[in-house]
Amino acid sequence: MGTEELQEYGADQIQILKGLEAVRKRPGMYIGSTSSRGLHHLVYEIVDNSVDEALAGSCDHIEVTVHKDNSVTVTDNGRGIPVGINHQAGIPAVEVVFTILHAGGKFGGGGYKVSGGLHGVGASVVNALSEWLEVRIFNEGKIYQQRYERGKTMYSLKVVGECDPDRHGTEVTFFPDREIFDDIEFDFDVLKQRFREMAFLTKGLRFTFTDERPEDGPKQRVFHYEGGIIEFVQYLNRSSSALYPQVIYCEGTKNGVLVEAAMQHNDGYKENTYGFVNNIVTPEGGMHVEGFRMALTKVFNDYARKNKLLKDSEPNLTGEDIREGLTAIISVKIENPQFEGQTKMKLGNSEARSAVNSIVTEQLTYFLEQHPNVGKSTVEKSVLAQRAREAARKARDLTRRKSALDGMSLPGKLADCTDKNPKNCEIFIVEGDSAGGSAKTARSRATQAILPLRGKILNVEKARLDRIYSNAEIKAMITAFGTGIHEDFDISKLRYDKIIIMTDADVDGAHIATLMLTFLYRFMPELIKTGHVYLAQPPLYKVEKNRKVWYAYSDAELEKIMQEIGRDSGNKIQRYKGLGEMDADQLWETTMDPEKRILKRVNIDEDSASEVDLTFTTLMGDKVEPRREFIEENAKYVTNLDV
């Protein structure tokens, strides 16, 4: 949006709705949780305010710095928060923004045309949940400053210096409150992914992200994409082979909704479509994504009929067929978006659906007329998907008829538990008959089920549904879990509260665990999102001395044990190569006993859905080079694998 569209943004455009007190009592209501995700949300809230300045055409550079003490500074070159007196409150507008809940320039006061921080709680919530926060504003040659501690104003807004008259913008530094958060350690990679995404979504906006904490010196990343979401699609598709070279791009404004959509098919089988509203990700989609899918289905079917790529006797392609292997970004800017709550999971504005549908239909139709190779290759791929879907339906119907829920038998290899209350039960997915045998002997029969799998399961990243449904190992898991998969998934039918992947602590074991996680993420993601999936942590070493036994789960832990007991010839150290090397008692004591074992719960950060998808595609897809880069970049985190 150009600067010619800017409206007045002064002290009286900051409107007040109500006070701040509830935030410290119930932080989860405002930032989701006080875990790592909530901690990072603080940064997003401040950065979102700077991005809003960019959306208003007033800012083209945002700098974020994580300092050595885990305080964070966010600086922009926007207009700067107004420093004049807000007449409704009788205090400077900047103080209103940071100390009064539901106060901001985004409630129709004319300060912003579109905005991500729509509930007006961002700055004040961050302030309330910080031990201290300082804001500096650069305005007309002066530097204004104010400090707050746990939301309380420490001194009146004051001028603390002079700056270049041409400099303008806001600088916010805050330190998260250790009384509120379990841990205040910011994750470089989590923030990096978020800022990269924001830069893709705001064409031309430059992000400079600096982490001052590393002992070997600061780390810095700069994100700047003149191509915007076209480059976003190219980035997400870099681990796949594109079906056609062009990224299809549609752009326009209708009924006050600014629409951008970019898409490209690859030769894979998974759809990766992401919706954004005013640069805020909507993990559950909403009207803008619906409008895009409606347009896609209609345009490609019309194209297929018009060009005789579908016979008159053949049914239309479904949206699912057409979207096989699609990577797409739908980004809308809208003045009054209706989200489902502060977490902004789903967009409800019907005008967004009609705007996206109209613009994509018109521009995609024109594009296909100009590029017949794209239309032909996409329809041919969709027809193959249609046939595979029909084969998968038949296999699925067979699975349904044989399912345990219809009174039929569970997989023969499953050693089920006797307790029938799912809340009390857990299932161990174990690789190989040897480890499976030990686990069956070791387990608590009442509450622990064992499902041994033979070898490595099918890589679902490289397979269509028909192959997945006909794979014996995957069918065994589907039947044992009881939930069904894909559109049949019903979490209320889950037979176990914990699904525990138990593999050897070596490279093969890690590969098998990744294959299983890929399957669960692609076809039963709710199991992960609701916290039912775990990784067992078998020990790497057994140490014996004077008939006493210690288990070490990493090289560092082994070193610590050796320092405590001393190094001498009486020490016996056994390196476990696999679960099958342990007898049943050892396996129970180290890996299966709920009182002593270590489990890692698998989580998905929905704010970084595109990065999670890309990680699975990189690790399990066809392209070698992105996988090599990933391994080289992350090798430093590997401490306990035989490589």
Structure description:
With 643 residues, the chain is α+β, with helices and mostly antiparallel strands. Helix content is 36%, strand content 21%. It folds into four domains: 3-224, Histidine kinase-like ATPase, C-terminal domain (Heat Shock Protein 90); 229-390, 2-Layer Sandwich (Ribosomal Protein S5, domain 2), CATH 3.30.230; 406-539 and 585-604, Rossmann fold; 541-575. The chain is built from 20 helices and 26 strands. Strands 2, 3, 7, 8, 9, 10, 11, 12 and 13 form a nine-stranded mixed sheet that branches. It has a five-stranded mixed sheet with strand order 14-15-18-16-17, sandwiched between helices. A hairpin with a 2-residue loop joins strand 23 (541-545) and strand 24. Helix 4 crosses helix 5 (122-128). The two termini are 52 Å apart.
Task: List the defining traits of the structure above.
single chain; 643 residues; alpha+beta; Heat Shock Protein 90; Ribosomal Protein S5, domain 2; Rossmann fold; 9-stranded mixed β-sheet; 5-stranded mixed β-sheet; 26 strands; globular; disordered C terminus
Helix run count:
20
Q: Find the count of extended strands (DSSP E, 2+ residues).
A: 26
- The radius of gyration is 28 Å
The percent of residues in helical segments reads 25-40%
Strand-residue proportion: 15-25%
Using the coordinates shown, work out and report the CATH topology of the largest domain.
Answer: Heat Shock Protein 90
Distance between the termini: 52 Å
Spans of 5+ residues with little confidence (pLDDT < 50)?
1-5, 105-112, 403-408, 639-643
Architecture of the largest domain, CATH level 2?
A: 2-Layer Sandwich
Total domain units: 4
Classified in CATH, the superfamily of the largest domain is Histidine kinase-like ATPase, C-terminal domain
Largest beta sheet, briefly? 9 strands, mixed
Structural class: alpha+beta
The CATH class of the largest domain turns out to be Alpha Beta
Mean pLDDT: 86
* Envelope shape: globular
